[in-house]
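[worker-b] picked up task from shared queue
[worker-b] task type: protein-ligand structure
[worker-b] ligand name resolved to fe (ii) ion; SMILES cross-checked against name lookup, match
[worker-b] sequence length check passed
[worker-b] input payload:
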Amino acid sequence: MGRGKIVEFIDTGSIMNSKLDWQFPDLLARAWWNLVKTGCPADWFELLPELDFDRPDRSLEPQSLAVLDYLPRLASMATAPYRGIIDSLIEAQANLRFGQTYSEADFGAEFLRQYGWIKILGPDAYWHSSQLASGFLILGNDVTYPQHWHEAEEIYLPISGNAEWYREDQGWQRQPVGTVIHHSGGVKHGTRTIGEPLIALYLWRGGDLNQKSAIQ
Ligand SMILES: [Fe+2]
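[worker-b] inference finished, payload out:
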């Protein structure tokens, strides 16, 4: 989506929430965007919209999650420049909207205590795209995100925490910080943490970007 379409989207007036004065920190937005460009394969680049970092397309009501308690440890484990991103999340967390795709009925209460995400770009995120979704996944230090699959193609880039990642054609593999992890649409995958929490950039493209994953 080009800039023209973003302006057109704002002009509809249907998505702006003027009652909230707080603005998404532009430093966090710029750091996230640099990471997106780092993790994006060449054939994803044409999907990247032009963003006005000083003016998100939406304001979202803040929502906190238990998994945010792991952020200080994730920051202390991280190296520059990733640490700055996590510090920015901590600083702004009271005003940010974090979310969960699953309910207790899917994976249980303990999973929900150690799982969550923030979506920065997407059909319903701070910045709008109907073709691409991106943000950060956060997992606690002892949790398994069970095997699941979805229509969208997915990329992860861990920025703190060395977790084990499952892909049906590779099995479980430990993936260090900075590794670009790719899941094609429909491929079964999962993630587990063993003693270290995890925060990873995620990117989705294709399919329904708000789809709830199918689970085993
Ligand atoms: Fe996934």
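[worker-b] attaching auto-annotations
[worker-b] The two ends are 34 Å apart (CA to CA).
[worker-b] releasing lock
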